[in-house]
Amino acid sequence: xxxxxxxxxxxxxxxxxxxxxxxxxxxxxxxxxxxxxxxxxxxxxxxxxxxxxxxxxxxxxxxxxxxxxxxxxxxxxxxxxxxxxxxxxxxxxxxxxxxxxxxxxxxxxxxxxxxxxxxxxxxxxxxxxxxxxxxxxxxxxxxxxxxxxxxxxxxxxxxxxxxxxxxxxxxxxxxxxxxxxxxxxxxxxxxxxxxxxxxxxxxxxxxxxxxxxxxxxxxxxxxxxxxxxxxxxxxxxxxxxxxxxxxxxxxxxxxxxxxxxxxxxxxxxxxxxxxxxxxxxxxxxxxxxxxxxxxxxxxxxxxxxxxxxxxxxxxxxxxxxxxxxxxxxxxxxxxxxxxxxxxxxxxxxxxxxxxxxxxxxxxxxxxxxxxxxxxxxxxxxxxxxxxxxxxxxxxxxxxxxxxxxxxxxxxxxxxxxxxxxxxxxxxxxxxxxxxxxxxxxxxxxxxxxxxxxxxxxxxxxxxxxxxxxxxxxxxxxxxxxxxxxxxxxxxxxxxxxxxxxxxxxxxxxxxxxxxxxxxxxxxxxxxxxxxxxxxxxxxxxxxxxxxxxxxxxxxxxxxxxxxxxxxxxxxxxxxxxxxxxxxxxxxxxxxxxxxxxxxxxxxxxxxxxxxxxxxxxxxxxxxxxxxxxxxxxxxxxxxxxxxxxxxxxxxxxxxxxxxxxxxxxxxxxxxxxxxxxxxxxxxxxxxxxxxxxxxxxxxxxxxxxxxxxxxxxxxxxxxxxxxxxxx
Length: 727
Known about the structure:
- Strand 5 (395-399), helix 19 (410-421) and strand 6 form a beta-alpha-beta unit.
- Helix content is 56%, strand content 9%.
- Helix 10 (226-235) packs across helix 11 (237-246).
- The N and C termini lie far apart (85 Å).
- By secondary structure, it is an alpha/beta fold.
- It has four domains: 3-40 and 125-234, no CATH class; 44-117, Orthogonal Bundle (DNA polymerase, domain 1); 254-482, Tandem AAA-ATPase domain (Rossmann fold), CATH 3.40.50.10810; 489-658 and 694-710, P-loop containing nucleotide triphosphate hydrolases (Rossmann fold, 3-Layer(aba) Sandwich).
- It is an enzyme of class 3 (hydrolase).
- GO terms for molecular function: helicase activity; hydrolase activity.
- This is DEAD/DEAH box helicase.
C-alpha cells in the first residue's frame, strides 16, 4: 500500500466531505423553511377544521359515533371538538370516558389528514412577518436553482457510496494497519480503494467538485432583505411554490400527481430515468412524472389542465433525449405561440431552437435536417415539408393538438404522417375533446390504432370509466386543484344583465334577419344604451381602483372595438389582440401590458389570445359573451389563472337575460359534463356520449329557430335557416 493508495483515499475523503457539507447546508436551509412554515400551516389547519362540520366524525368512525348529542351541545365543528377536550365532552349527556376518547381520536385523524393536505398560500398583497419569514427562507433555495437541486442529489448519492468505501479502505492508508488487518479486511480494503478511484474519476469527468462547491456557496449566502425576497417572489412565484412542494412531507397526493394511472403503468413510468442535465429549470414532482410518462410510453397525449406547465414537461423530455445523443426534434404549434415556444426552449434548456416559419422556412428546414436542433413550425408550414424517414426525428411535439382532431383535414393528415415517422410523439392539449368523444378517440388513433379501434361501438363507447382505462397507456391528465394547492382561488361570476330597450330592439333585428352571430353581439350593437357595456365599465373601474389589470375577451373584433371606445380616457388599453396580429406582435402586446406598473386593460379576441399566451399579470378576466365551446372559455381563463399567478383571479361572464345567452349557457353546461366524464374524471359513466352534443352549426341553427318562434317572428316549424356568419 503506497503513496498512490493514500492519495486516492484522501481524494475520496475530500469529495465525501464536500458532499456531506452540501447535504448539511441544504438540510439547514430546508429546516429553516419548515420552521417558518409551521405556524402558517397550523393556522391553515385550524381554519380547515373550523369549517369542517362535526358530522364528519360519524363518517370517520363508519357511523359508530352518535354525533347528534355533540352537535346539540353547541360543538358544531371538528375544530371546536378538539378545543373542547375530554373534560368538556364528558359533560355532554350520554358521553362517557370511552366515547369521549373515540370522539377525540376521530377528530385527531381528521386533523392529521388536514396537516397532510392543507395548502399554505402566500398573499403577496398582504405581507406580514410570518409569510415574510417563509419567503426569505424559500428565497435561499430558489436562488440555488436547478443546479443546487442537482448538487444535493449528487451529494446524497456520493455520501451513500463513499461512506462505506472509505470505512472499508481505512486499513489501506497505513502499512501497519494493513499488516494488522485480517485477510478478509485486506481484501475488502483493496476492493474499496478501487471503488473510490472509480467514483473520484467519474466525479472528475462530470465536474462534480465544482458543482458541490458552487452549491455550498449558494446555500451559505446570507438571507435576502424583506423587499428583495418579496419582489423576487412576485416575479417567479411558481419556483417558490415548487420548492415548497418539494419539502419532504409537502408533496401532493401521489395518485393525483400521477394522473390516477393504473398501478402497474404508474410503476413503469416511475422506473423511467429522467436526465435533466440540459434543463435550466427545476420541475415540480407532477411535471417530472409527466416527462417520464412521455419517455416511457413513447407516443402519448398529455392532457393536463391548462396552466400546469405542459410546455416545460415537453422540453424536459426533449432535453433527456438530447443528453442521450439525439439531435432532431420538431415542435408543431399555432402561429400565435410560435414565438413563445422559441422563448421557452431558449430560457428553459440548452437546446438550440430553429424557426421553420416565414418565406425562408424551406431553407431553414434543409439546414435543420442537416445540423439538428429543436425546430419550431406551424401546422400550415408542416404540410409543405417532406415527411422524414423512420427514426430521423427523435420526438415530435404537437401543441394545441385538439386542432388536429378531425382526420379528414389536410392539417391532421400531415401531423399523422409525421407522428408515424417519428420515434416518439407528444400531443399536448388541455382540451382533448370539445364536441364529441369521437374527436378524442381520433387523437388516440393517431398514436395507437390498436387502442382506439376497440373503443368503437357504432357511434358510442362503452362508458367513461372503461374509456379512461382503455386509453391510460397513451393519456395522462392532471387537474390544477389536485396538484397546485397553492393556486389562488378562481372566483367565477355570471353577470346577468337585463337588456335595455335599445338592446332588445337590436336583438330582435338580428333574430329577424336570421343572423346568429349578430344575435350573440347584439348587446353591443348600440353602445350608448348597452347594459353589458355599462357593467363592463364598472368592472374595469373597480379593478383599476384596486390597482388590478384586466383582460377583456370577445369572439368578435367589432365588439372589442366598441369596448376600446367605451374605455377610452380611463386606464391604459392595450390591443386589440386579434388573429390578424402577427405572432411576434401578439407576444409584444402581452409583454407591454404586463410591464405597466399599475392598472391596465388588454383587449383580446378569444380565439387568438386564448391559446398559448401567458397573462398572469391580470387578475380580472371579462368574457363579453358566452362561447359555443366550454373549452374556449376555459382556455381563455387559464391564460391568467395558471402556475405563477399570485393573486386571486376574478372572472366575469357578461350575459343578457331572455335570449341566446341563456340557451348557450345551458349547452355549455352539458358539454362540460361530457368532458368531465371522459377526459377529466374517471368515475362517471355515460352510455351514449356521442349523442349528447351536436355540431356548432347545429347549435346555431337550433337556437336561431327557437328564438324566431319565441319572439313571434315566424310560426313554429317555419323558422329561417340562415347559416351563422364569421366573426
